[in-house]
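From the shared-data thread, chain only:
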Amino acid sequence: MRKLLPAQRLAPAIRWFSFRSRRGALPALLAGMLLSLAASVQAQTLNGLDSAAPAELTGAIAAMDEAASRQDVEQVMALIDEDFMHADGLTRDRLQQALEGLWERYDELTYTTTLDSWQQSEDGIVAETTTEIAGLQRTDVRDFQLLATVTSRQTYRNGLLVQQETLTEDNRLSSGTNPPDLQVQAPDSVPTTRNFAFDVIVPEPLGDRQLLGTAMEEPITPDTYLSSPRPRLELLNAGGLFKTGRAPALSDSRWISGIIIREDGMTTVTRRIRFTQ
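Structure, as tokens:
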């Protein structure tokens, strides 16, 4: 049998990856941010905090969970204040637009949320939660599996969600018969102007297989929540991506992603990194 050249062996993976890019799918981390709005009150078991939390908080979360489980956009938005603001710049209208796009693309979404802490403040009830998300997106070419972990801080007032800030995100999107199992070494926060390492490692032996991949850094804005740039892939000479970045001079948050493609599958990992002074 004629031995395939690297480009020929990877051609099917490149075709379905390019198809996905043209569809302009929502980033995996958008799923995390939106699903953290719909925290499952039944899953709030950490340190018994759910039993001590005020009924206003648990009631708002339970109502959000029920509406989100039905993918009832109108009811979800009824639980969000008209002046809602997200720390990333998302307004209420932009949030609704993104939520509709998310549910259109993902056939199955399941999540488990723990209530990490809560406190009463002058602005309302401030709660911090951790959400574990699993999702399935079906396309004409491939199915995509989503796994994500998101921590966020939310403020509720009079039973409505009024503010939200995403604290950490760690997301993984995979497809194929045997997607690469990746190990990610990257910080959650970096002081401004400092260098930092972003390593995405394929731990299993490659043998004679070839890898394509790339690393991307994206600003976090309302526009980037709704669209993803098309990556420029390169042939990798080593078993993964090994990149060095430099933090900006001002405080900011950015998404850092690594994409690894093999002939039998693809995995994308994304982490939010906060740059602090």
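The two ends are 59 Å apart (CA to CA).
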